[in-house]
Structure formats: structure tokens, C-alpha cells
Hints:
The structure holds two protein chains of two kinds.
Chain A: H1 13-27, H2 33-46, H3 49-61, H4 63-71, H5 73-78, E1 89-94, E2 99-104, H6 113-116, H7 121-124, H8 126-131, H9 136-142, E3 152-157, E4 162-167, H10 179-183, H11 188-192
Parallel strand pairs in A: 1-4, 2-3
Helix pairs in contact in A: 3-4
Chain B: H1 28-40, H2 48-56, H3 60-63, H4 68-82, H5 88-93, H6 109-118, E1 137-140, E2 159-169, H7 172-175, E3 184-192, H8 193-197, E4 204-210, E5 214-216
Antiparallel strand pairs in B: 1-2, 1-5, 2-3, 3-4
Helix pairs in contact in B: 1-4
Amino acid sequence: MPHDDHSHSELSPIALRVKALESLLVEKGYVDPKAVDAIIEAYETKIGPRNGARVVAKSWVDDKFAEWLKIDATAAIASLGYSGRQGEHMVALFNTPAQHNMVVCTLCSCYPWPVLGLPPVWYKSPPYRSRAVLEPREVLKEFGVVMPADKEVRVWDSTAEIRYLVIPERPAGTVGLSEKQLADLVTRDSMIGTGLAKSP
Amino acid sequence: MKGAQDLGGMMGFGPINPEKDEPMFHAPWERRVLGFTVAMGPTGAWTGDMGRHKREQLPPSFYWSRGYYEIWFEALTQMLAERGMVSELELETGKKLAPPRAAKRVWKAEDVLPWLKRGFAYDRPTTMKPVFKIGDVIKTHRMATPGHTRLPAYAWGKRGVIEAARGCHVYPDSNGMGQGEDPRWVYTVCFMAEELWGRKGPDTVCLDLWEPYMEAA
């Protein structure tokens, strides 16, 4: 297959089975290998957390856009060109001085793909999925974030097809920065809620 | 079902250990699994909810020790075998032994971006009125069903407040069992951490729950 440079004998058992299955799916006409390539390419090059960062930065500088995000996040986000698979029903969660939002999927790996891309391994793994709802403050500490005792930590468990994007608080000392400069301060983790936006 | 996937509130899995500068894929085979698992969706051989139900039936010893792409791959091979689409013997030998089953749709390369951008909406038009409104206090049922459900065990029999009504969505407890979409109202329900875990403090957990999961409290 053109996708793998390793010789047959170097492949692990799982890699061999994956290769065998893809050949069969293609031979039986269930998938077109060029479509499989196009899916991978889309997530490797077009769909990732820079999309979400643009949404956040715009919400920081454009009050009307922020209001639209609160009322209809799916439409507001689509106006920037991000929509579709695993982001059909979007809700934006605005962090405030009184409330910090954090997103998890305890039952599988639900994640807002159009704005954040594919989830990292830790997001899909048992430690985060089991602990985020039970002890979010301890989890946040492991990401280097300490929350004041009187601030509400609100955890959103993505149990349905609604996908959540956290809008982190705008960092201090960012007056006058361009939308693009602001977007560079928005990390992936700050949009999951396991981090904060960076300071300039 | 309360299978290995129902992880909320379990203890003993250790630290999160996020990987610094994590690559998108950790082996070339993972990117192929992503690609063809997504590409199998349009064939219509199963629904997304059926895929989730298959994954949650994997043995806990497997589910808790393997990476997510391996979980995807294992569930995919089982669903293909159960439908006579690709048998285990074909997978072992790498040889096609039986003709293909019909596929509803097969994406070409040029179909991919338009379809990814369009997505697959789960809301459905309805004449049913929502039973609950924002601010209502509800109590969840206990859902020890062997079938598919999206009410995690940690939220069984708990009191929460309706935060939002999200529309009438495909009902996984039916759709995941191959019994049709049976759309029902979905609400975001907020629970105090104290109600869930017996721990005082300001923290809350919100879940998106279908109407049949709850009753007025």
C-alpha cells in the first residue's frame, strides 16, 4: 500500500490487521481509498484548534459576535466557516470571574471536531474521563490551574450530540492587540477548560 | 449499559499525564483507522449510536488497557463480521472470500469536505411539547439496562435542575439498538457536586439528558 513505507515484517500485529482490513474494505467497494486519504488530510491540515482560537479571539473583540455565540453558537461559528461533523449542535461556555467551565465525555470521546480537531489521547483515556466529574479541581491542578475555593467549577459531560466550546476569559494586558495576536494566546486546553488563555 | 465505558466517578486510574507536544497520531495505522472508520459511516451499515454500543460491550480488561483507535478498530471489525460484510476469516487471511453487501453510499474524495462541513444533525422536527421547562427540578431514573443509554451511572437517581432545553433529538436508547430514531426532547440538567458525590462546595456537573431519563422531583 502506498500509505506505509515499512516492509511487511516490521509491522506490529495491529498494524497488519488494519492494513488487511483496509484492503478488504477497498476491494469490497465499501470505501474509496482516496476518500480515506481526504478524511485524514482534512483533520491533519484543515480542522484543528486554530479554528476555535479564531472564534474565541473574535468573541473578545466583537461584542455582537459574542452575543451571537451565546444565543446560537452553531450559526455564529459557521459564519467563520467551521461547521459539520461532531459540531452539528454547538454551545459556547463563557468563563467568568465567578464560574470556570470544563468539558469531558465520560461515556466515550465526544469533542467539538470542527473547532478543536481530533481529541488528544488524555481526553479519551480513563484517568480524565473518570476524574473530571468527580474531582475537577484536582484535575485542573495537574494541568497547572488552581481555582479559588469560592469560584464555581462547572463540568459539562457531553452525553448527547451537543458539543461544547469553552470561551476562556480574556487575559489582562491585551488591550490593543489584534484579533490574530489574541488568537495566538488561545490554547487548545483553554477551550476544553483544562487551561487558561496565555498572557502576552 | 454500565460497561467499561461508564467511567465517570471511578477511582484508581491514576494521573492524567497529558503528553507534551502530542502528535496527532502515534502510529501510521492510527490515521488509517480514523480515515476508514469515518468513511464507513455513509455506507449506512450502522448508526453512530450502534457504534458506541458496540464499543461499550468490549470487555473492561480490553477497553481500559487499549488506545482509543484500537477500541474503534475492534468494534468496527466486530460490526463488519456480524453483518457479513467482512468476516474474521477474511481479515485473518487478507483474502476476499464472500461478495460485498450493499452499501447505501460510498464517499468519493470530492464528497469528503462538503460532507464533513455539513455533518449529520441529530435534531428532528416534532409536535411533542417538552414536559419540563428551565428551572424545573427533576430526578433521574436508575437505568440498569443492558442496552445502550447515555445516562451515566453516577447520575442515576439524582436531583438536578433543568438549565436548557436543546430540542428534540434522535434517542440513543432506541437508535443504538437498531430500533429507529424515536426522537425525544433533550435538556441540559445541572447537578450540585454535593448531590452526586456528597462533597460540599460551589461545583456543579451538567449533563445532556433525554426526557425519558427523568421525572419531576
